Write a sequence for this structure.
């Protein structure tokens, strides 16, 4: 894999993990990252810190360095990049509002 390809894969994975964390999936994002760095706990710490800070550049760089050293990590990253992010949509078609959802129908506000 050439350097531009490696950076494309690692940047995509870093962005996806940070997006997952922002959406409230911090546990899933952390677990995915720990799975990549199975054999390199010393490098894992820096990657987890970049994830927690939401620093996509630092996370992509950490992933690229490690993927350059471990072909299995590179294959895990390729698999993660191929799957892409999951988008969830919540709709509300009743009379009450769900947090973060669309409202189609009636909304009643009762003063108290």
């Amino acid at each position: 894999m050439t350097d531009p390809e490696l950076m494309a894969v690692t940047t995509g994975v870093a962005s996806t993990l940070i997006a997952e964390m922002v959406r409230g999936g911090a546990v899933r994002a952390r677990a995915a990252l720990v799975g990549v760095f199975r054999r390199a706990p010393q490098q894992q710490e820096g990657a987890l810190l970049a994830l927690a800070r939401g620093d996509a550049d630092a996370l992509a760089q950490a992933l690229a360095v490690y993927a350059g050293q471990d072909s299995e990590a590179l294959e895990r990253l390729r698999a993660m990049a191929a799957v892409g992010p999951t988008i969830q949509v919540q709709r509300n078609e009743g009379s009450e509002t769900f947090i973060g959802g669309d409202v189609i129908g009636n909304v009643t506000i009762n003063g108290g």
